[in-house]
Design brief:
Blueprint (H helix, E strand, L loop, with lengths): L12 E8 L15 E5 L15 E2 L5 E8 L20 E8 L6 E3 L5 E2 L6 E8 L13 E6 L14 E8 L11 E7 L2 E9 L12 E9 L2 E6 L11 E2 L21 E3 L1 E2 L9 E7 L1 E10 L11 E5 L5 E2 L5 E9 L2 E10 L17
Parallel strand pairs: 1-3, 12-22
Antiparallel strand pairs: 1-2, 1-11, 2-7, 4-5, 4-8, 5-6, 8-10, 9-14, 10-11, 12-18, 13-16, 13-19, 14-15, 17-18, 19-20, 19-21, 22-23
Length: about 350
């Protein structure tokens, strides 16, 4: 997309290919008349599209859980609704791991998924981008919960970053390559980056060490990703638990923060050029404000720390797969916005030259 708002939007995708093969030398014996589906990650590579976006491959050792849904009724057509999923009746699910240098994926028990008929099959896969060595524990149809509070985490890479892949395809071709399925894992929550600099009018000129914290006000403390499909065969949008400002846990802080929840952002290891400090976090729900606390000096007689809230984001509904970037200027008792944008939430900067394309 190339949409010009105050905030530009784009998707970032983590690519996993699903192919078919006639090789039945491993795993269970191939059922007569059924073609096996062999998962592999990026074994044909990815080529950047016209927007110059690149896709990343899952590294060796990565794990994800995948389900395959299909029509099982004798009179079903592609227009039929998908029945409630029943394992080995109209759905199969299992975990997979990447165990090859070219991203080959292996089912947990060395068995295959198989195309069941010539109708549409729906493939749905879930992974945690910040915990790829462990396949998420998810039952088909489950609304999987993710903790979005800071807790004892010390970096954004310790936060949950669920990614969901969805593809609908029928085995129309007669060969494995003709039936290749491409799955693109997409971030289900949002990422926020805040870059801070001194005031251009010199009313504030501090050292980076005097920035105490940057907090996101009102964001969700729990997010959900559904590992299942609708009767029409579509995936579900990610959701979050609404913040109840009347909850007893906010009783002592409600005067200081009328939005209830807050998330203390992590200091980024890399500061944006020209700025004092950069902060980052994965978040979801509704963003009500960005509160910044900073000091003028460490001297014993220094004035109390300044607290100012940027409210240019009030009631902002955070969207899946977007990275919100706010460049802010510190001024006494207020925050000035320089600009705001959304950039690609990149998982990898490598551009892979091959015949794949990136899903918008």
């Amino acid at each position: 997309m190339n949409i010009k708002f105050c905030v530009l939007a784009s998707w970032c995708a983590l690519l996993v290919f699903v192919g078919c093969t006639s090789d039945d030398s491993v795993g269970e014996q191939q059922p007569k008349g059924l073609m096996p589906v062999l998962f592999s990650a990026g074994n044909t590579g990815v080529k950047a599209n016209t927007r110059g976006t690149s896709a990343a491959y899952m590294p060796a050792g990565s794990r994800f859980v995948c389900a395959m849904f299909f029509h099982a009724g004798a009179s079903d057509t592609n227009d039929s609704e998908y029945a409630d999923p029943i394992q080995e009746v109209n759905m199969f699910s299992d975990s997979f791991s990447i165990d090859g240098s070219q991203g080959e994926a292996k089912r947990g028990n060395d068995k295959y998924f198989y195309w069941q008929n010539r109708l549409d099959h729906v493939f749905l896969a879930l992974a945690d981008n910040n915990n790829l060595t462990v396949a998420p524990q998810a039952e088909v149809g489950e609304q999987v919960a993710f903790d979005l509070t800071r807790g004892d985490k010390t970096a954004m890479t310790q936060q949950p970053d669920p990614m969901l892949a969805y593809e609908k395809k029928s085995p129309a071709g007669a060969t494995s390559e003709a039936n290749r399925v491409k799955l693109f894992f997409k971030h289900q929550f949002a990422q926020i980056q805040v870059n801070l600099k001194n005031a251009q009018d010199s009313s504030v000129a501090i050292d980076p060490t005097l920035i105490v914290s940057v907090e996101l006000l009102g964001v969700a403390e729990k997010g959900y990703v559904t590992f299942g499909i609708t009767p029409e065969g579509n995936s579900h949008a990610a959701s979050s638990e609404p913040i109840n400002v009347d909850d007893a846990k906010y009783k002592t802080t409600i005067k200081d923060n009328p939005y209830g929840s807050l998330f203390n952002m992590f200091e980024s290891n890399t500061t944006a050029p020209g700025y004092l400090k950069s902060f980052e976090a994965i978040a979801f729900g509704t963003l009500q404000g960005i509160r910044i606390t900073w000091k003028e000096s460490e001297a014993a007689d220094a004035v109390a720390p300044h607290k100012a809230t940027f409210q240019g984001v009030k009631n902002l509904k955070l969207e899946s797969g977007k990275k919100y970037i706010y460049n802010l200027e510190l001024r006494r008792s207020l925050i000035a916005q320089i600009n705001a944008e959304i950039a690609d939430w990149e998982t990898d900067k490598t551009v892979y030259e091959a015949d794949g394309t990136i899903q918008e």
